[in-house]
Structures are given as C-alpha cells and as structure tokens.
Amino acid sequence: MASEPAAAPLAAVANDGVLPGQRALPPPLFEVLLRLPANALCRLRAVCPAWRSLTCDPLFVKAHSSRHPILAGFRRSTGEIQLADLLGDIVKRIHTVQVGNLDDLNTHLDLVSLTDTEGRLCVLNAATGAVSVLPANVAAEDESLGPAFFSTCKLGWVPSTGEYKVLRMHMYYPPNCKDFVQICSIATVDRGNETWRAIPSPSIPVAWHSKRAVVLGGVAYFLLGHYSNDDIELDRIASFDFATEEWRPAIRGPVSSLLANSEDSKVVHSEYYRECFRLAVLDGCLVVVHSYNIIRGRSSLNLWFLTKGIDEVQWTKRYSLPAPHAPWNPIGTDFHPVVVLDDGRTIVWVKRPTDLKAYDAKTCTWNYMDPIIQDYTAIGVHQGSLLREGLYAC
User: Is it the case that residue 386 has pLDDT exceeding 80?
Assistant: First the structure.
C-alpha cells in the first residue's frame, strides 16, 4: 500500500484561518466532511487533490478527532485491545501479551498501556500494532527489599524531549512495621533496553488504584492514599513531573477549598468519604470527580476542572450529573466519566455491570451506548487520530 503524503504544514493555513481546499468547498459541504467517520473520509481522499489536501491537514484532523472520539477498551475474553468509535464500529484489534490482574489502562498519543498489579507494563502502538512489555525487575538499589505485595506503573510522555518514561511504584511491608512504604523507580522507554533507576518516594503516601491516578501533559497526578494523615484532605492531589523526575508539592482539591473552616469539612477528612473522590482527564484538563448528595440510594457526580495551573490553583465545576440508579453502589464510585462530546453529552463508563452510558444534559436522561463497546474490563480515550495514523487503508 502506498504511503500517505505528508500532511500540509500549519503554515499553509491562510491568514484568515481557512484550511487548504476549504475555499473550493461550499460551507455546508465542509461541515458534512467533518461529520463523516474516518473510514468514509479515507475513501473520499481519492475524489480530488483538494479534498485530500483538506482531510490531511493537521487542523482538519484535530477538528475531526474532537467530533469523533475513539475508545480504547480491553476485553479480557479475547485478550485484545479494541479501538472502537461511538457507533460501535471496531476500528482495530490488537492482541496483547498475557497480563495478570489488570490494574489500569492509559492512553498517550498513539500508545495504549496496560498495567497489572505485579507492576508489569504492556505498551501497544495503535498505529503499527507493535506490542512490548517492560521488564518487571526493580532498581538495583531496591533489590534487598524482596517481593512487593502490590505494584503499579504509570506511562508518561515528556513534551520537551518526546521521550516516554514509566513511573513504577512498589508497596512493601517492612519487617516489624505495621504500615507499608512506597518505593519508586523510573525508566525511559528504550525498545527493551530499559533500566530502572531509584527515585525518592512521595512525602505523603498516594493512592495507586485505577481512577485515583491519571497522567496529563507529562505529569502524573495522585489522590492521597488510605494511610495519609487524618489532617490532610481526601481530595488533596500529589503530582510527579516526568521531565524533572521529581515530586511536586501537593495541591488542595476543589471540595476542601470550598469547605475550609466549615462544619461540612468532614466530607474531605472522614475515611467514609474517601471513595467519593476520583480523578479523570476531560477536554485536556485535570478533573476531580466527586460523588455526593446521597439520597435514597442515589448520588450525583460533580466534575471539577482545574482551570488554572499548579502554581495558581483554581477549580471550576462545569458539570453535575445524576448518577444512574445502582443499589449496589449508592455513592456512585462505579461511574467514571470518559469523554464530553461536542453536543454536550457526557459518556460515562459503568464498572458494574460493565457498559457505557451517555448523559444528555438537555433532556436530563441516560441512554445506553452500542452493546459492541460494552463489556470492557478497562477503558480509555484514544488520543491519536484515525486520519493521521493510517489505521484505515487510506
């Protein structure tokens, strides 16, 4: 198959912001092209050079991706990662190596990573189908500690260098000690030649479970762990910078910021409420998901967006969703927001039973998504573009 010509550079965009080829198309037709799925656009590239130039342009690719999110889901029954659109069409299947007890799935540009509870990390390239597994050994400095009772990894990307790095965290119970310790190491992804380097542990124990830790913009964010000091709020967030390989000072979460010196501050201090807080990445922002207002077995989900950086923390509540009825899980911790669509619908992954639902704020209703994209053990949003990566035979 002939390789696709390089996309037109950004400099080719006119001063008025019009894309190459867009002037030759009536505005309604340009809008229609944006609405078409990627496989249809790939076929239309053969119509004429102007359409090919337009649909290959990075700005068009970005606009199209924002309207057509692709989900990356792990289906244990088949042992594969599936890339699927919201219409239920499976774009690509990638068979993985065997993983143990799956802990998390993360996406970074064109990569999808799977982590098990023993600290093994499986990295899949969605464009090429290549699969690699990072070694499960520890840093030489930590070999004397023996086996960990739990391990996890986070894959991060350093924007300034383009490097991928992996942060690994092992949990140990030292002899004659009732509390566990967290030991950290890091490795630069290097085609199987990775070497783990010991790095300082966080000053306060952090949570490691899925949905309580996310990666965004070269930084890993963690809610505080179960053994944190009682005086520290449950929505406080620690962060690790992959570029500097250092832990940053923890920042205060949105709820504790509002409830400071309030009688309701128990919400962010009581162990009972710990599972009410989770982390997500939506619209390119760090989001705190807060399950609250438990009434008659129902809860609501507040989505708080970090609208200013770490140095000047500011949280904004953009969405509040009534959680679907779930008598087995009244505080709503089985519901995790995946993506917010351009039409205002919020796609939520329900862990038990595993399926996807869409909440429409205009009608205040929940709707099930196509059953083909249900029954995933873990799910994320593919950050690449089907038009750019050649997943279709364009």
Answer: no
